[in-house]
Specification:
With 125 residues, the protein is mainly beta. It has no helices and eleven strands.
């Protein structure tokens, strides 16, 4: 059974940092497209930082230069390092894995097959 567990969210003041983790069981992360998505109240889920199985990356314009996606293959875990956080970064952050996600679709939520439960990130001004 495939399970993804997202963790590391919390409350932080603007300018602070958080590192989100996504631990996987039942799949080998390096063989899948991985996406970090967030959803703010009343808004659609959006791609934040994603990486395809061939290493191509996507960063939303709003987080470019502040967020970095990385992996620890030994732990089968993906990370999202979030620096210089802004209030508009507030939302529930989800980790997802895609089996057949093509590179051009890694930013699209419907392209993913497995989802973690999400972790809340709140950034105050």
């Amino acid at each position: 059974e495939v399970q993804l567990q997202a963790s590391g969210g919390g409350s932080v003041q603007a300018g602070g940092s958080l590192r989100l983790s996504c631990a996987a069981s039942g799949l080998i992360f390096k063989d899948y497209a991985i996406g970090w998505f967030r959803q703010a109240p009343g808004k659609d889920r959006e791609g934040v930082s994603c990486i395809s199985s061939d290493g191509s990356t996507y960063y939303a314009d709003s987080v470019k230069g502040r967020f970095t996606i990385s992996s620890d293959n030994a732990k089968n875990t993906k990370y999202l390092q979030m620096n210089s956080l802004k209030p508009e970064d507030t939302g529930v952050y989800y980790c997802a894995a895609g089996v057949r996600t093509i590179t051009t679709m890694i930013r699209v939520p419907s392209s993913y097959d497995y989802w973690g439960q999400g972790t809340q990130v709140t950034v105050s001004s």
